[in-house]
TrEMBL record:
Protein name (record): GntR family transcriptional regulator
PROSITE patterns: HTH_GNTR, RCK_C
Ranges for domain RCK C-terminal: 120-205
Keyword entries, A-Z: Coiled coil, DNA-binding, Transcription, Transcription regulation
Length: 209
């Protein structure tokens, strides 16, 4: 992402202001001609002229025709530096936020691709092994709990064939029609994707959509 670049003449204006604040240039002192300032700061005469114009607009210095530049105010030079720092921090924060937004977009895109891949892989596994069981945890407040598999007629109501129930740390394989489904039990069953929705609807009274 492109960064905001500060103009060279603005940086030179700040360097001159720093020299004023640090008393390298005293208030009332006449600075060198613009061409000498340009050589001092290693820039072109035009860049030095623009820097002096910025400082003159802020009443930090005053160009004196034929005799260079006069320093007017150390306090205004200090204010200019503080504002420049604030502006620089604002630009940096803005740039950081844009970078974070861009990264978030990339992360979301990667997540979407990974999710699509997971769905494809899941679908392939289901096609290759349709007998792979689903896992389902009924809502603890379901009115269907504390009843037996047979009395609930689960297969007739949902199409699910229960192959195991995990109760606490005990896995009950091939539970018969008299096995009760208790709060906290995990049900493992064989069926289709529609069977999953039917189980949700049957136990919790909600759809998976």
């Amino acid at each position: 992402m492109p960064k905001i670049k500060e103009p060279r003449y603005h940086k030179i204006a700040q360097e001159i202001s720093e020299a004023i604040v640090n008393k390298k240039f005293e208030v009332g002192q006449k600075l060198h001609a613009r061409s000498t300032l340009a050589a001092t700061f290693g820039v072109s005469a035009e860049t030095a002229r623009k820097a002096i114009s910025v400082l003159a607009d802020l009443d930090i210095v005053k160009p004196v025709h034929g005799s260079g530049v006069e320093v007017l105010s150390r306090e205004k030079a200090r204010e200019f530096l503080a504002q420049a720092k604030e502006s620089r921090n604002l630009h940096e924060t803005h740039s950081e936020i844009k970078d974070l937004i861009q990264k978030q977009k990339e992360d979301l895109s990667n997540l979407e691709q990974s999710f699509s891949l997971l769905l494809d892989q899941t679908q392939r596994v289901r096609q290759q092994n349709p007998m792979s069981p689903y896992e389902f945890l009924p809502d603890q407040n379901s009115e269907k709990l504390n009843q037996s598999i047979g009395s609930l007629n689960i297969w007739q109501n949902t199409g699910a064939t229960i192959v195991a129930i995990l109760h606490d740390d005990d896995l009950i394989l091939s539970p018969g029609p008299y096995a009760n489904i208790l709060p906290g039990d995990r049900i493992y069953f064989i069926g289709s994707d529609k069977t999953v929705e039917a189980m949700q609807q049957f136990f919790n009274g909600v759809s998976t959509d």
